[in-house]
Amino acid sequence: MTMDVRLLRIDSRLLHGQVTTNWAKAINVNRILVVSDRVANDQTRKTLIVQAAPPGIRANVITVEKMIRIYHDPRFDILKPMILVEDPVDARRIVEGGITIDSVNIGAISFDTTRVMVTDAIAVNVADVEAFKWFHDHGIKLDVRKVSSDSSKNLWKSLSEKGLV
Amino acid sequence: MTRREKVLTYLEKCALSMDQGITTSELSEAIGVLRPNVSNVLNQLVREGKVKKTNGRPVHYFMNSEEGERGFMLEQKPNIGFAGDARIRNQSIKMKSTAKKNKVDVFDNMIGSRDSLKNQVEQAKAALLYPPHGLNTLIIGPTGSGKTYFANKMYHFALDREIISKKGFTTFNCADYAHNPQLLMSHLFGYVKGAFTGANADKDGLIQEADGGMLFLDEVHRLPPEGQEMIFYFMDHGTYSRLGETAKVHHADVRLVYATTEDPKSSLLQTFVRRIPIIIQLTDFNQRSAREKLQLLEQLLTLEANRIHKNIRLSEDVVQALLGSVTYGNVGQLKSNIQLVCAQGFLNSMRNKNEITLIFSQLPPNIKDGLSNLANNRQELGNLSRLLEPTMVIKPDAERGLPDSDSYELPYNLYEIIGDKAALLKDEGLDQAAINNFIMTDINLHLKSFYRQGKLERNVSSLNEIVDQEIIDLTKRIQLLLQERESYPVRDNFIYAMSLHISSFIKRVQSGKPLRTIPADLISMVHDYPAELKIAEHVKDLIEDHYHFPIPESEVYYMAILFVSLKSEPKTGKVGIVVAAHGNSTASSMVHVVSQLLSVDNIAAYDMPLEMSPKVALDGIAEQVKKIDQGNGVLLLVDMGSLNTFSSKLTEKTNVHVKTIDMVTTAMVLEAARKTALIDSDLKTVYRELRQFDGYAQTIEKVHRKKNYVQTISNQREKAIIAICSTGEGTARRIKDLLDKILVDNLIDDIRVITVSVVTMNEQIAKIQQNYQIVATTGVVKPEVAAPFVSLENLLQGGGESFIGLVEKINNHTAHEAEDLEHSDLLTEEMSQNYLGQYFTFINPAKIVKVLWNYCDFIQHRSKSKMSNAFKISLIMHIAGAIERYLTRSEMSVDEQKRSNVRTEKLYPIVKQANEVLHETLNINLSDSEVYYIVALFKTEKEKNDTQNN
């Protein structure tokens, strides 16, 4: 038995308000793991995120390296986590580290000057596209949903339409 | 120049510039001679005919000039002078006298109004005169600094200037009903019939009562948040609702003045403080000038003289003792102490019809102490001596008024009671000594019962958060014993110092820590104080009786030293303490607590806001170190590792020996203050003892060494916690299971728990140390390892969580920044704006953040529930998201069922109203689905808070 990862979600804002609460309830998780090297070293943001966890579910902020470590450590098998990452690159590092999933959920990726908007909430840059290609090549579905009750859209289609892949 | 010459010279000078002459107080201030002395000289000069005085109050004095055309207002008939001249003069005087009503400034006769309280008085006047309705004012000051008195002056000023229409100074102490917010609010706002059980008829509140006048809310920090919100709504709109009403239909025009002893930043809602533009900070008694202190003393004595209709004669040393007896309670404490000594003096001088005399040798011990307190401050003593005469006589002086009612005033006339009782006892044939003895007990009783209502009581209650009530009670018994049988002078801080001492050694005995050995120099020192040693023996018996276990002999010595220390409390040579911590008030609040509890003076705080550079911090700390050093070195207590290089730099910079201990807690500051208060303490000893304190302190040096060691020798070593029991298999195993679970729960994967048996403990630990870095130990005994030890009780009581908290602290995880966030709205707003820029594409962070901030405030205000700043950031981000979704036409959708359900939520109408405001500002209409999510966000937060509170 290994750790049962219920969801791997990409969201620039990581754990935030109602969106996370909605997911946590819908897919029955007992832990929220926010995985980001940057946030793990940012005390204020870390505290804010931990405080924003939905009632009854604990959230931890850890580095990518630690995520991979505890995934393979049988002591932590009792966790049924939802994993939140900031961008596709971190998501890929996690899956490359051996974490088994069949789809990755994409909520929102914030626009910045390196990125272009693909959907109303998702912006990508070269590195992101590279990571999404990798997922696609490994048969991992790119599921675009804000909340669990939305109908799922395939990001690959949007990327193709934009001529990015 | 003699006093007489000084007075005459000044009056001559005045004659040229002033028409109206000068009052005794003004003269006293101008020439630096005490008021009673000036008064003496003036009366003499009037009798001699050299000086004249006016009829009205306050009396004005001026030189008796030859012309005498000023006689218009004089006792004597005016001489006939040059007619034209006289007319002009008369007119001008007439004009002055009509203008006089507006001219007299009630603040003028407040002591310090031209000096230490000058700014405060200007602020108060500005607040009152500001058109059209004045500004709301908050008075901050420590206990007894005269907040009520100051507010009273403000009221009289407003009345004189006809700023307020109605006579009436309504005061309300918010602490009176703090335990019952509903009752408190009903007092303030009134209620309608049926608002709650027992509300049989409509009733107006104090706000209505104060309509047209002034309302003074004391201890406003005890007002619950919903009360603060109702008040600030009233400040904004002038309307309010009574309890049980929904609409705010009542209107009142009230000048509001608030007062608090607390830091408003941490004790009041920010939204509330923002609405108070004028904050007046009153000065500590001990920061006032020697002159002002004397003036205050003199004024307070005059009040007593007025009450007993006799002169009060006191010598220089009594004045010094009285001034020095003010330790924590400011003018209020001085007033109480003066009442006490006057009552005593009254009794002792009963036979003298004209005068009571206060004699130093007859003062109670806690007042006598004042003299040595004062003697320790050379400079202050010097300043004072220059102003003092060998004896001072205070005469009854109706001009100086009767006391305003305040909480330091006794509710009855103590002197009448004393007089009546003495007469009664005399009739019964008792001799004077017996009568005095009898009545003195009585006076002490009166004044004690009165003291008890004051600050002292509250201090003791905060003490019992740290020390068991049982120990406090025991200490009180010891105090009684010392007072009654040993004639040991018991001071203010006895209860605190003694109960902390008992508590720490009882814990030591109970937790089986090794007994302290008795150093030879301690023994020789104690033998110089045989009386204290004897007392310590008695106290030891008492404690043994109480706890039924033997107290080690070494404790008798330590207690004897404590008694010696508490008695003499020398000022020089104490080890200084500087607390430095990150955060706007972390350090100062710790120091505040400790110095209030122990009334120590060898401790200073240095707050380091997060943005402060290390260079600035170093300079700031150096300054504190210099300030607090008494020649015996300074102990620096810091909150985390980043300050670890400071010790040597500070020593270099200040030439003061500095030792640093990190991970400071309030408990540790207390312990440090307590230890440094002992006379035999030196920096090295205190430092060594503190490092062992409760086992959770780690010295910077040690951590540093350990870090280096770890880095150089075995960077890869895994961390370990050692659990010890007699076999290594029983209790230790259970501890391991417990800790393993907690470690997993905290996602800590790099710490192993290893069980060890007592029998082979040392060898096993040595072996473990080759492969592991031991971060903590727990179990039945404390091993010889340089790591914190947590006793089994602590481990099991705290559920282990706090133990892991400790482990995380060692790894330097602290949450100060987030704590700071909760205290700083500015920081929150900045951070929100920052995140908005980071996560959103289309909205303009700088412009939108204000709108969203107001959105939060609006809901907070309407829903009457306080949001944490962390939640505010959440909400701001969410609403920004909703706005951006609106702009990109990608709003969230929710099924009809949920949308209709949400309409029944209590918050729904409030969120709708808030959205309406958003609509007005930005012309954006959020859909009902978005409203659903906003309401849901609040519900989740509330649910979370509820589960946390249970």
UniProtKB/TrEMBL annotation, chain A:
It is found in: Cytoplasm. CDD domains: PTS_IIB_man. The keyword rRNA-binding does not apply. InterPro entries: PTS_IIB_sorbose-sp (IPR004720), PTS_IIB_sorbose-sp_sf (IPR036667). Pfam families: PTSIIB_sorb (PF03830). GO terms for molecular function: kinase activity; protein-N(PI)-phosphohistidine-sugar phosphotransferase activity. PROSITE patterns: PTS_EIIB_TYPE_4. The keyword 4Fe-4S does not apply. Residues 1-165 form the PTS EIIB type-4 domain. GO terms for biological process: phosphoenolpyruvate-dependent sugar phosphotransferase system. It comes from the Bacteria. SUPFAM superfamilies: PTS IIb component. GO terms for cellular component: cytoplasm. Keywords: Cytoplasm, Kinase, Phosphotransferase system, Sugar transport, Transferase, Transport. Transmembrane segments: none annotated. Its main location: cytoplasm. Gene3D superfamilies: Phosphotransferase system, sorbose subfamily IIB component. This is PTS system, mannose-specific IIB component. It comes from Sporolactobacillus nakayamae.
UniProtKB/TrEMBL annotation, chain B:
GO terms for biological process: phosphoenolpyruvate-dependent sugar phosphotransferase system; regulation of DNA-templated transcription. It comes from the Bacteria. Residues 110-343 form the Sigma-54 factor interaction domain. Pfam families: EIIA-man (PF03610), PRD (PF00874), Sigma54_activat (PF00158). GO terms for cellular component: membrane. The keyword ATP-binding applies. Residues 466-573, 843-948 form the PRD domain. Keywords: ATP-binding, DNA-binding, Kinase, Nucleotide-binding, Transferase. This is Transcriptional regulatory protein LevR, contains PRD, AAA+ and EIIA domains. The keyword Flavoprotein does not apply. PANTHER family: TRANSCRIPTIONAL REGULATORY PROTEIN (PTHR32071), TRANSCRIPTIONAL REGULATORY PROTEIN LEVR (PTHR32071:SF90). Residues 574-721 form the PTS EIIA type-4 domain. One of its GO terms (molecular function) is kinase activity. SMART domains: AAA. It comes from Sporolactobacillus nakayamae. SUPFAM superfamilies: P-loop containing nucleoside triphosphate hydrolases (SSF52540), PTS system fructose IIA component-like (SSF53062), PTS-regulatory domain, PRD (SSF63520), Winged helix' DNA-binding domain (SSF46785).
